[in-house]
Specification:
Elements: E1 8-10, E2 17-18, E3 22-25, E4 30-33, H1 37-41, H2 46-52, E5 59-64, E6 69-79, E7 90-95, E8 98-104, E9 109-113, E10 120-123, E11 128-132, E12 140-145, E13 152-159, E14 163-164, E15 173-178, H3 180-183, H4 194-201, E16 205-210, H5 219-226, E17 232-236, H6 239-243, H7 249-266, E18 272-275, E19 290-292, H8 294-297, E20 304-306, H9 320-334, E21 341-344, H10 352-357, H11 368-383
Parallel strand pairs: 6-9, 15-16, 15-17, 17-18, 18-21
Antiparallel strand pairs: 1-13, 2-5, 3-4, 5-12, 5-14, 6-11, 6-13, 7-8, 7-12, 9-10, 19-20
Helix pairs in contact: 4-11, 5-7, 7-9
């Protein structure tokens, strides 16, 4: 057994990384992007930039017999004046697929977002280190999952034994797009987000395009999905359309058709699953936009409320109920010519009984326990026998 570390520094290269669509090399490190530069250039909203650079589902994958691993990183901490401080992002290490250790890095840059004025202030900070020791002294596959909700640059990798990329494991690639729920908001760690939980059940190689606040049927997101290698594709549509009060009923149908048409240009025969919103009582029958509850804000708590009126739904404002009806109809009609297209009602993943047992702490996002339930249900209903992503016997493909 080794008693002291003789460090080997290995360049952080993309053959050691999974889960991002693009990588940006800067003077300080390597940034994972979950949307390509062309897509990012087509949207000026800084909130999309903040969401796509948070590496939900992005991980480092190594084959090594190292017993100690150090990953130098440069996180970006988000600060919201008047709201309780956010916890540091979590780095989780898996050995041969089993969660073995986790840590946080308190150092890094700071980004202050003033919710009242919309201003952003960025301050540079020091590089920190995610350190893992006591790993088993044998050849093994090591995964380091980056924080799902905190942007980070990868600076340097050190180990006490050589590392190599893991050979192709023959897994199917699951490409998923959704809202902050799919991004992993309020999950305790990167492997606790519901897509990560579902992916671990199969297992499949997850590419998570859950973009907090930005599942808005954007054409550039559809084009990014069209151009990304995938064996399985799912899109979870609805809650952000209501949150943002983005469109009316007249626009929703054509926008969904256009989004699916674009994906099909690159993936004509790939299983494609449309998932409607999970239960969210404040928006089931009440339109958006969604806003912070001012009474809660005065006590430093983040709680959401619907600011629309249920009466406005008759004028075409969207609710989760109306979105589900539209999605179900569109998939039913398209499936007549697209045998690889299917639909899942999000309430089958998290519904009324689940809400009674595991209510949404801020009225909008599930906590870690609810994420695990949603991910487990998805695995059972979608990857399980008879599901949209169930393997074909003897082929390993859908």
């Amino acid at each position: 057994m080794r008693t002291e570390n003789h460090w080997i520094t290995t360049p952080v290269t993309t053959d050691l990384l999974l889960g991002a669509l693009e990588w940006e090399r800067t003077e300080r490190g390597l940034i994972p992007h979950r949307l390509p530069a062309r897509a990012r250039a087509q949207n000026p909203d800084p909130l999309l930039g903040l969401a796509e650079v948070q590496p939900s589902g992005v991980r480092m994958l190594l084959r090594t017999r190292a017993t100690a691993v150090e990953l130098d990183v440069l996180p970006t901490k988000r600060v919201y004046p008047g709201i309780s401080a956010r916890p540091d992002g979590v780095y989780e290490l898996l050995v041969d697929g089993l969660l073995t250790a986790s840590t946080t890095v308190p150092d890094g840059d700071t980004l202050t977002l003033d919710m009242a004025t919309g201003s952003l202030e960025h301050r540079a900070g020091p590089v920190g280190t995610a350190r893992f020791t006591g790993l088993p002294d044998r050849v093994k596959d090591v995964e380091i999952w980056l924080p799902h909700d905190e942007a980070t640059q990868l600076v340097a990798l050190r180990t006490d034994a050589p590392v190599a990329p893991v050979p192709d494991r023959g897994r199917r690639v699951w490409l998923h797009h959704g809202s902050s729920v799919s991004h992993g908001s309020d999950a305790g760690g990167p492997t606790s987000t519901w897509p990560a939980v579902a992916a671990a059940h199969e297992p499949v190689d997850l590419v998570n395009l859950g973009l907090s606040g930005n599942a808005l049927l954007d054409p550039f997101t559809a084009r990014a999905m069209r151009d990304t290698r995938a064996d399985l594709i799912s899109v979870k549509i609805g809650i952000n359309l209501v949150n943002a009060d983005l469109m009316r009923a007249r626009a929703l149908g054509p926008a969904v058709h256009g989004f699916l048409d674009t994906i099909r240009e690159g993936h004509p025969d790939v299983p494609l699953l449309v998932v409607s919103p999970t239960l969210c009582p404040i928006h089931e029958h009440t339109p958006g936009p969604t806003a912070f509850d001012p009474e809660a804000l005065r006590t430093g708590r983040k709680v959401f409320q619907a600011t629309g009126s249920a009466a406005e739904a008759s004028a075409g404002k969207l609710t989760l109920t109306s979105v589900r009806e539209t999605l179900s109809r569109i998939v039913r009609e398209r499936a007549a010519e697209d045998p690889y297209l299917s639909y899942l009602d999000g309430r089958d993943l998290y519904g009324e009984k689940d809400h009674e047992e595991l209510p949404l702490p801020d009225r909008l996002h599930p906590d870690t326990a609810a994420h695990r339930r949603i991910g487990t249900r998805f695995a059972e209903l979608v990857f399980g026998p008879g599901g949209a992503f169930a393997p074909v016997s003897g082929t390993g493909t859908g």
